[in-house]
Every structure is written in C-alpha cells, then in structure tokens.
Design brief:
Blueprint: E1 4-16, E2 29-40, E3 46-48, H1 54-57, E4 65-67, H2 71-77, E5 87-89, H3 95-98, E6 108-112, H4 113-120, H5 132-139, E7 142-146, E8 150-153, E9 156-160, E10 169-175, E11 178-183, H6 195-198, H7 219-232, E12 235-238
Parallel strand pairs: 3-5, 5-6, 6-7, 11-12
Antiparallel strand pairs: 1-2, 1-4, 2-3, 8-9, 9-10, 10-11
C-alpha cells in the first residue's frame, strides 16, 4: 500500500545556518519552517508533529517568528478538525514540534521512551526546549511510549534517529515516489547536501557525508542518524524545510531552486 505525505507550513522562525550545518556558514541567515506533516491514505488520520505559533515559540527561541496560518485553519483546508486527528507521531518533544498537540483531544501520541525520560529531567542546555507547561499538556494526552523502530501500519514505519535529542524519531512512508522519510532531527535541506559541494574547495569538513546540526545531545549520533536517513530515502523531507512554502523557497540551496 502507498500513501501521500503532505508538508503543512504554519509559519517560519529566523535562525542562523550554522545551527544546521555544524560550524559552517556562521552568519548566514536562514528561516526554519514551522511544519507538520499529514499522512494521507491510511485508515486513520495521522500527523507527524503539530508545530506551534510565533507568540508561543518566542518564549523559548531568540529568532523572530511569523505565522502564516493557524493549526486549525490548516486542518480545515484538508477537511479535518482537531477532533479528527487519530495519531500524532512526535519527532521529539521540543516546543516547536508539540505546540498544538493539546488541541487534538482524541489523538494517540507516539513518543520514544528515552525522549519522555529526558523531557522529564532535561539537561540545563536543553531545558528551555522542554517547557513544563507543554510537557504537562502532552502527559495529559493518550501517550504511547515506544522503544526503537516501530511499524505503525504496513508501509508506515517509525525509525529511531537519536542525536538531536535522545529519543528523536523519523517516519518512513511508502509513497508513489518511493520511500519518503520525514526527518525528525532538527534539520534543513542544506544539512543533507554533500559538504564538498557547499564548502570551498579543500575545506577541512569536505570529507563529511552530511552535516550535523549544532543543537544536539549527542553530536556523533546526530551525524550518523542524518547519514542513515539520507541513505534509506528516495524522498527526504527535513522537518524544518525550507521551501515547502513559496514564501521560504529563497532559503533553499541554489541547486534546489
């Protein structure tokens, strides 16, 4: 069976490219899309993450945010309401990925055991990404704690991809284009570009297979998780775009415009 994966962009938030191409391109402006993904074709309504909104994210991230549409408006365009959401596969529990979870009263929320354990007692460098009020919102929902890879449906598989956080997970979906992987790690398209193509000739980082993000609980794990999803995917969808929305396409790598 094949499905369709639709990225839905709620807004954007400003960042620096070096946060997503480890120690490279410092000072290069970038926007992160605040995105969730709708999986079409399953017997239940499945989302990957729910995103957030600018005013809420401003408490936890210094970059300026812009809203394009509300979560409710975006679902309505798909013929759905918050009550129609059956399953939320949560990439990780950072504030910009779970901001709208609480609105989906009937949803079952899939979270890695290691992610929930870390969210309950995060390291000080990570604590602002796991605000207590949002963790309480998630805890009040129907949480399904899983460990490692998990077959959600035939052709829809949760893949453990740690590094950005201890329990980051991605989603591999069989589509007509092949294996489409929604990357749960804090990544953009540039993260997966061959470093030797983006960096000046002879740059000491040009031997890397992929970049890693700079926000990570384990940088080495993050690198290998990025390499893993890149090798397995026919279509790769980084959770922060950019370029899923026309307003953010200017931040794509030149080769993708």
């Amino acid at each position: 069976m094949t499905y369709e994966v639709k990225p839905i962009v709620l807004g954007q938030i400003a960042a620096d490219m070096s946060g997503f191409t480890y120690m490279a391109f410092a000072g290069t402006p970038l926007v992160l899309e605040v995105t969730y993904f709708l999986i079409k074709g399953a017997e239940k309504n499945i989302l990957f993450d729910t995103g957030s909104w600018a005013a809420r994210m401003a408490k936890y991230w210094p970059g300026e945010g812009v809203d394009f549409q509300t979560f409710e408006e975006s679902l309505e365009k798909e013929g759905l309401s918050t009550n129609d959401v059956d399953i939320i596969v949560t990439s990780h529990l950072h504030h910009d990925h779970v901001g709208n979870h609480f609105k989906c009263k009937n949803a079952e929320v899939y979270v890695q055991v290691d992610e929930w354990a870390f969210a309950c007692a995060p390291h000080p460098l990570q604590a602002q990404y796991y605000p207590a009020d949002m963790m309480a919102e998630v805890e009040a929902m129907k949480m399904r704690l899983i460990r490692g890879d998990y077959d959600l449906y035939p052709g829809i598989r949760i893949i453990l991809t740690p590094g950005h956080t201890p329990g980051t997970q991605s989603l591999c979906v069989d589509t007509k284009e092949g294996k489409t992987v929604i990357v749960g790690q804090c990544t953009v398209h540039q993260t997966f570009m061959p470093p030797k193509e983006l960096l000046p000739k002879g740059h000491p980082f040009s031997s890397w297979e992929v970049f890693s993000q700079s926000i990570a609980t384990d940088m080495n794990q993050a690198y290998w998780s990025n390499a893993q999803v890149k090798s397995m995917a026919d279509v790769l969808l980084p959770c922060h775009g950019p370029g899923f929305d026309e307003r953010t396409k200017k931040y794509l790598p030149d080769s993708m415009k």
